[in-house]
């Protein structure tokens, strides 16, 4: 069973032992202008062909997708005043092969979905796959761009009710800058929803050592443990920035044979959803 | 639309499907080239092939659930459904195709709003079951009265109902809800794949071609099309099993009374004979339905008898020894006299066997071969199988139709989940839960009924003693019996 640990796993272990908070803060901001890391793009380019294979490397993402909708529903239900129930506008950043984007576009409450990804190969897969469902026509638009390449909204009508960042933030080198760029795209009263992985002993063990090295259910090099972000860091960022309220979190655990399950408190150790609402002017 | 030739399109398809399938496609395309290329398929979310109990309850359930009511659905059925819709028989006539509906099936039919359209005066609940061994006489009695004393209230074990009464009620519910495109008296000519156009790529979508020339592209194609399911054949799913070398003889019987307990407390009777089980199941009033599983030769013999002799054979089957019965099967006629003579010399407890049959409804004697079949899986890409298309069971436990209702309930739940979570309801991944839920459960029932059949076709030797001990032991163990009864009623704890 003992597969050899890869150098990156060992390097991460070393970092974990040092646990220097300074390191994380340094990583949070930088001078670069694009949020996109070229190494990440080439990694996902290589994965493009298997994106929609239900028994392939993206199976865990496919299985997680219903929870994303449950989480968004939970966010909307928590609002003091119920939000709109029809014609919702979604912006899905880092859409990959379009697992979430397609599903969001199929919901009867959705008006339109704009989904962007910097990897041209992955986006080609997404576009080709969307053509297989005539129901998506006119509701789903794919753009091969980073968030920086998207024109800034000039009115509330051009902003989005839901901006989603699913399994994205852990692939971004400078998350704070990236979130700064995302913020103007959200409507007042709209939500940023995201899912990611906490930086903990457990997540290092499960996502790097077990998932990538031993069980190999996730392709090697998919995760860079150093870039994982903890929930309190995200919450801290948004509340510091002001203009945001009602942070929500939901920890989830993958249990073989049962699938993804919500487990209270597990956001501290592994995969979790995070949502936060933009103030209504 | 891109001007592609048929052969070019087939080449493209070659990348996605195996070579044997593309061979088939090439053949189909050649055959239909002149027709199909001009007609663009209409796009549906669900196309259900087969308008039997499973198919109709699927459509009624989809239309009555708020989550799935927006789906565009169509039904394809080769028979004329207006005959089903107008099902009407006088109170003293019953169709010979009856099924036992478990309380759990009835609850589901009620949830989807169909049960209120079923004619209740033609439905008969029963609260007791008498099952015994034809050779040793060992017996198991299922009786809800004991349950009632335990304070759980009297619940019927199951309800006998004519299949037509059910399908007619389901059709009325579908008519009431509206929104189903019903294409009856339409044969499925062919099932192939769609084409690619500028806007959409339907090369992975099943396209059903009807003899009227219509083409229906299905996001999800449901095969509710019976044991020889064309949908199953299209999807390449194998169905395995064996034939029992038995036929089920059915008939509508008139008995000397309305049962020992009257209309309020009816009993189902089943005796295991070496040739197979014979069952008499109560219908309203003085009527019962017969299901007699026996060898094809004996079944053929029964069908040649005069009504008088047929009735005598039925009465003998519940009363006389297998040896007596075997003798009477050798007679070309005269069973009525033979029975009255032999019955005088046989002892039996009147209250534990059905009342004597005194008449058989004209034209109601029929027979069909019994077999066991189970599909390897119930799902494929854009395909789901329900009911007999997925499994065929020995009728001894009366579970066939109920399994189909269980399939439909589970499939609709799976589709509801997919719709509310934005999944494409046709892709295999969205359907996985349906297969997981139903396959193991059905497989267990198929196995249990198969083993029971085999156990009771043994005429002598230690097995007869063992099975009798088994029946007597179960009969004396209250909790175990309650558990078995709950399983029969479909209300029990899920074993799997």
Write the SSE topology.
The complex is a heterodimer of chains A (281) and B (496).
Chain A: H1 7-18, H2 21-28, H3 38-47, H4 59-77, E1 88-93, H5 99-106, E2 110-116, H6 120-130, E3 140-143, E4 160-166, H7 175-182, E5 186-197, H8 201-214, H9 231-241, E6 244-255, E7 259-262, E8 271-278
Parallel strand pairs in A: 1-2, 1-4, 2-3, 4-5
Antiparallel strand pairs in A: 5-8, 6-7, 6-8
Helix pairs in contact in A: 1-8, 4-5
Chain B: H1 6-13, H2 19-36, E1 42-49, H3 53-64, E2 73-77, H4 81-85, E3 98-101, H5 103-111, E4 124-126, E5 128-133, E6 139-143, H6 144-152, E7 158-162, H7 163-177, E8 180-184, E9 188-193, E10 206-210, E11 215-223, H8 230-235, E12 239-255, E13 267-273, E14 276-282, E15 287-294, H9 296-304, H10 307-319, H11 322-330, H12 335-343, E16 357-360, E17 366-375, E18 379-380, E19 383-385, E20 391-392, H13 400-420, H14 428-456, H15 462-476, H16 478-489
Parallel strand pairs in B: 1-2, 1-11, 2-8, 5-13, 11-19
Antiparallel strand pairs in B: 3-7, 4-7, 5-6, 9-10, 10-11, 12-15, 12-16, 12-17, 13-14, 14-15, 17-20, 18-19
Helix pairs in contact in B: 1-2, 3-7, 3-13, 5-13, 10-12, 13-14
Describe the protein's architecture and organization.
Chain B: It is a peripheral membrane protein. Chain B: Its EC number is 1.14.15.45, 1.14.15.46. Chain B: Pfam families: FAD_binding_3. Chain B: It is found in: Mitochondrion inner membrane. Chain B: Keywords: FAD, Flavoprotein, Membrane, Mitochondrion, Mitochondrion inner membrane, Monooxygenase, Oxidoreductase, Ubiquinone, Ubiquinone biosynthesis. The complex is a heterodimer of chains A (281) and B (496). By secondary structure, chain A is of the alpha/beta class. Chain A has a single domain, classed as Vaccinia Virus protein VP39 (Rossmann fold, 3-Layer(aba) Sandwich), CATH 3.40.50. In chain A, 36% of the residues lie in helices and 21% in strands. Chain A contains 9 helices and 8 strands. Chain A has helices spanning 7-18, 21-28, 38-47, 59-77, 99-106, 120-130, 175-182, 201-214, 231-241, and strands at residues 88-93, 110-116, 140-143, 160-166, 186-197, 244-255, 259-262, 271-278. In chain A, strands 3-2-1-4-5-8-6-7 form an 8-stranded mixed beta sheet. In chain A, helix 6 (120-130) links the parallel strand 2 and strand 3. In chain A, helix 1 runs antiparallel to helix 8 and helix 4 (59-77) crosses helix 5. Chain B is an alpha+beta fold and 496 residues long. Chain B has 2 domains: 6-86 and 165-241 and 373-448, FAD/NAD(P)-binding domain (3-Layer(bba) Sandwich); 123-161 and 243-369 and 458-489, D-Amino Acid Oxidase, subunit A, domain 2 (D-Amino Acid Oxidase, Chain A, domain 2, 2-Layer Sandwich), CATH 3.30.9. Helix content of chain B is 40%, strand content 24%. Chain B contains 16 helices and 20 strands. Chain B has helices at residues 6-13, 19-36, 53-64, 81-85, 103-111, 144-152, 163-177, 230-235, 296-304, 307-319, 322-330, 335-343, 400-420, 428-456, 462-476, 478-489; strands at 42-49, 73-77, 98-101, 124-126, 128-133, 139-143, 158-162, 180-184, 188-193, 206-210, 215-223, 239-255, 267-273, 276-282, 287-294, 357-360, 366-375, 379-380, 383-385, 391-392. In chain B, the strands form 3 sheets. In chain B, strands 5, 6, 12, 13, 14, 15, 16, 17 and 20 form a 9-stranded mixed beta sheet that branches. In chain B, strands 1, 2, 8, 9, 10, 11, 18 and 19 form an 8-stranded mixed beta sheet that branches. In chain B, strands 3-7-4 form a 3-stranded antiparallel beta sheet. In chain B, a hairpin with a 4-residue loop joins strand 10 (206-210) and strand 11. In chain B, helix 3 packs parallel to helix 13 and helix 5 runs parallel beside helix 13. Chain B is elongated. The N and C termini of chain B lie far apart (51 Å). In chain B, 46% of the residues are buried. Mean pLDDT of chain B is 85; it is low at 1-38 and 491-496. Chains A and B meet through helix 4 and helix 5 of A and helix 13 of B.
